[in-house]
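Run log, item B.
One chain of 69 residues. Sequence copied directly from the ordering sheet:
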Amino acid sequence: MLGVDRGRRIKPWQRIMLLAFEAIACSVPGLPVPQGTLGAWERAQSQDGSFLGMPLVTGVPHLGLHGAP
């Protein structure tokens, strides 16, 4: 789904979720988070720490950052 453009053509909340799911999937076998994921999260994060003001979209990247299988 993310493809070559890393999901830049889909809605921002969908991209954040897919990046998070990808990070979670990589954490299971111990693979590194794909390059650019953390930067994409950083750019999308609001001043209040949320992602787009959406609780679910905010929670899933948190799981991805902490390597939840």
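Observations after the first pass:
- The chain has a mean pLDDT of 81.
- Helices lie at 12-27, 37-44, 55-65.
Flagged for discussion on Thursday.
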